[in-house]
């Protein structure tokens, strides 16, 4: 039957292609840099946290611990008290400026959820070495940022249960996009 023959021919062809690819792969030069990530590392990077914070991993961090993480890993770019510096934006202040002519968008004035700050810092910061903070360090440094912005107290310890409960000052500052060509999914903030 021609179809069976064709199928067999196709399968044979795929086999040869796979074998050739493996052969070539084996011959790629090694560059002597880096190492394969450990399973633990992959698991800790494989976290995406949405506004509701359901995906937040276990862990916790106190404001005090966050101050230390911040001074070691963030202050160089964002200033010792998050006021901003040459290499990084201000993370503090700016409340009430968003509707003015010179809006200052910071964690305190702009971000609508504490959970997504966790997500952003976990995945993107420190800018020059993203993904190197432990989950506890991320909780701690986010707690410190919330404290600097006057949103939580100095004694607070943040974790997966209480971070989603934080009401950010600009929580209701986002309005639905009125452009008619947008779908419902893109509309809701
Ligand atoms: C090497 C410099 C550098 C370091 C270190 C660094 N950041 Fe940043 N950070 C930046 C830059 C640059 C941006 C803007 C990135 C962009 O717009 O894509 C940024 C953006 C941010 C933002 C978003 C600001 C906003 O409102 O848009 C937050 C929050 C933040 N950083 C927190 C941190 C924390 C917490 C640390 C320490 C764990 C840290 N950063 C370390 C350079 C740095």
What does this entry show, briefly?
By secondary structure, the protein is mainly alpha-helical. It has two domains: 1-31; 40-174, Cytochrome Bc1 Complex, Chain D, domain 2.
Q: What attributes characterize this protein structure?
A:
189 residues; mainly alpha; Cytochrome Bc1 Complex, Chain D, domain 2; 2 strands; 41% helix; 3% strand; binds heme C
Describe this structure in words.
- The protein is mainly alpha-helical and 189 residues long.
- The chain has 2 domains: 31 residues; 135 residues, Cytochrome c-like domain (Cytochrome Bc1 Complex, Chain D, domain 2, Orthogonal Bundle), CATH 1.10.760.
- Helices cover 41% and strands 3% of the residues.
- The protein is built from 7 helices and 2 strands; from the N terminus they run H-H-E-H-H-H-H-E-H.
- The protein has a two-stranded antiparallel sheet.
- The mean pLDDT is 90.
CATH arch. level architecture of the largest domain: Orthogonal Bundle
Helix content: 40-55%
The proportion of strand residues reads: under 5%
- Small ligands present: heme C
Global mean pLDDT: 90
Total beta strands: 2
The CATH H-level homologous superfamily of the largest domain: Cytochrome c-like domain
**Estimated structural class:** mainly alpha
- Please summarize the sheet with the most strands: 2 strands, antiparallel
* Spatial separation of the terminal alpha carbons: 59 Å
Strand order across the biggest sheet? 1-2
Number of helices: 7
Oligomer: single chain
Named CATH topology of the largest domain = Cytochrome Bc1 Complex, Chain D, domain 2
